Amino acid sequence: MIKVCHVTSAHPKEDVRIFHKECVSLAKAGYDVTLVQQGDSYEKDGVHLVGFGAIPSNRIKRILFGAKIAYRKALSVDADVYHLHDPELLPYGLKLKKKGKKVIFDSHEHTAESIYEKEWLPKFVRSAVYTVYAAYQKRICKNLDAIISVTPNIVTYFQKINPKTIQVANYPVFAEQTAAEIQKQCRVVFAGGISDQWNHHTLLKALDKVPECRYCLCGIASQSYLEQLKTYPAWQKVDYLGKIPHSQVADQLAASVAGMALLQPGRNTDWDNGTIGNTKIFEEMLAGLPVICTDFVLWKAFVERYHCGICVKPDDADQIAAAITYLLDHPEEARQMGENGRRAVKEEFNWCVEEKNLLALYEDILRN
């Protein structure tokens, strides 16, 4: 049996893409799969999870020492294929190649471009760091067996470095389910990591123009960011639930009129072209909600094709308010949009589609 080892030195335990999608899919396909991650060691869903303890809280220590610890654990697995998920693991990819292993790098984001948006890096050094990192990444990745990424612009970037680059999008796992009998409330919802990139401040300005609508906010936010949001008058209409169990998130989505996905354009979204690497919009569609989302080229194409939401400028409070008002005033159309979005995930934007690409890549590199 072919042994496969996925390695992450930075992602949380049982990361959805790494564990629930890629590792579980490979195990079901007959591979002997190990995932090296933070925390303890145990078995789950046919996967051997090998823990290396806690991730260092200091970013520099994590990069310098966390990756090395994860590599040592991974090396002890003695797998045939190593699948790396963090840029700090790249130098160990070359070490593994020298040991005769097949090595895949899974780039979850455009790491090089995102350097320009790292607030912890002083602005005056970002350009130099970008240049050094891009050269370092290119030198290593051209020698690996394959590169995987989540969205077209990053795939195009890596194909110029390594022709064995494919897209494995981070679409949700689709499951048939009975619709929850939950009364819709006059509110919109967001569930996930709460940060400035999702334009919550602009949504609060929009809610001033839609007095009857509330905002359900589920997830973790820094205290400083929460304090910023609390300065807006519309904060009094926010139901901030913090981090809640997954089953409760589903109930909160089901009880809402629309899902919000107001992602700010930037380097990691290929500016106005957008990204399909971020799952927020697809998770809301899967939940049967119409989406109010950024008018990215990629998003607008399928939102209009399936008629499953309304695209807006994410920093335009008037457009956002108009979209919310429209869905509140047209409940039957909003319901149909939600059904259309769920159908879009079932037909096109689901993990079963991407799983085939992943398995085909493994078969390909193992033949050569």
Molecular structure report:
The chain is α/β, with parallel strands linked by helices. It folds into two domains: 3-171 and 350-367, Rossmann fold (3-Layer(aba) Sandwich); 187-347, Rossmann fold (3-Layer(aba) Sandwich). The protein is 43% helix and 17% strand. The protein has helices at 16-28, 59-77, 90-98, 111-114, 123-141, 152-159, 200-207, 223-229, 246-254, 280-286, 297-306, 317-329, 331-347, 351-367, and strands spanning 3-7, 32-37, 42-44, 47-51, 81-84, 102-107, 146-149, 165-167, 187-191, 214-218, 238-242, 258-261, 291-294, 309-312. The strands form two sheets. The chain has an eight-stranded mixed sheet with strand order 3-4-2-1-5-6-7-8, with helices on both faces. Strand 1, helix 1 and strand 2 form a beta-alpha-beta unit. Helix 1 packs across helix 14, helix 7 (200-207) packs across helix 12 (317-329) and helix 10 crosses helix 13 (331-347).
Q: Determine the strand fraction and express it as a percent band.
A: 15-25%
CATH topology of the largest domain: Rossmann fold
- SSE succession: EHEEEHEHEHHEHEEHEHEHEHEHEHHH
What is the domain tally?
2
In CATH, what is the class of the largest domain? Alpha Beta
Termini, distance in Å?
17 Å
**How many strands in all?**
14
Spans where pLDDT lies below 50 across 5 or more residues: none
In CATH terms, what is the architecture of the largest domain? 3-Layer(aba) Sandwich
Largest sheet: 8 strands, mixed
State the shape. Answer: globular
Number of distinct helices: 14
CATH homologous group name of the largest domain: Glycogen Phosphorylase B
Global mean pLDDT: 95
Spatially, the strands of the biggest sheet line up as 3-4-2-1-5-6-7-8
Which range best describes the helical content: under 10%, 10-25%, 25-40%, 40-55%, 55-70% or over 70%? 40-55%
Class inferred from helices and paired strands: alpha/beta
Radius of gyration: 21 Å
